Amino acid sequence: MLENGFVKIYRSLLKWEWYDDINTKVVFLHLLLTVSIEDSKWHGITVKRGSRVSSYAILAKETKLSIDMVRTAIKHLESTGEITRYKYPKYTVFTINNYDKFQNVPSILQDDSQGNPNVIPKSSQQYKKVKEDKEEKEDITVNQVVDLYHEICKSYPRLRGISENRRKAITARCKIYRIEDFRIVFQNAENSRFLKGSNDRNWSANFDWMMKDTNFVKILEGRYNGGSNDTFAVSDSRGRAAADTTESANDGEGLI
After folding, report:
1. How far apart are CA 202 and CA 134, in angstroms?
2. Span 82-97, pLDDT tens digits
3. How distant, in Å, are the alpha carbons of 46, 135, 178 from that of 139?
4. 25, 33 in Cβ contact below 8 A?
5. C-alpha separations of 35 from 7, 71, 172, 195, 216 in Å
6. What is residue 100's predicted lDDT score, i.e. its pLDDT?
7. H or E segment to which residue 118 belongs
8. At what angle do helices 179-190 and 56-63 cross, to 10 degrees?
9. What is the b/e burial string over 204-234, where b = at least 16 CB atoms within 10 angstroms of the residue's CB?
């Protein structure tokens, strides 16, 4: 996420209809602060300026709200036209509508930068942070993920090797998620009775199944957590959950 630079916020926000809704206000301001400041390419699509690739789970983690709170806030913002949500099979793009109308500012202020080589223009600081974030994601290694899995998922089979397909699946997840997201996934999996075999199919998950993108997101969002979610998963095991379990593979075939 960007941590340098600035965004413009008008005082008219005080009269905004969602201003008194704390969760909706928090999610909107968080998106305003974290969307991309330039068009970029990601997984074959163009992520426009004023947009970002994310998910309910990631936004919940970043804002310290629950997933349901984030989901409700997004519905509010969509209903009144503040944001648009573009759903793709494996991810979601959140776009702040009319971003350019109130965020277009000069990228370099003469008084701040010209004649003073030690002052970095704010826009340059932002682009530098974008680059740093990309490099930070790339720093996650396959071995780090495997070691974290072995550390947390004591109830699941240990990996005896890393096949090419398995490596590709891990690498694909590393391009999107941070190491803390992997930690949450492995902790949720370790705490899930359903994923460890307490279901009407007598089926258990494994590492390769967890690395499949759709399954990774479900575990990250707590879909297989204990309590009522486990009950939901069991009752749905002949539907969506059952369809997912049939895609389990010992060698990670087709997991990307």
Report:
1. 41
2. 899 888 777 889 998 8
3. 23, 6, 9
4. no
5. 11, 18, 22, 34, 23
6. 76
7. none
8. 100
9. bbbbbbbbbbebbbbbbbbbbbeeebbeebb
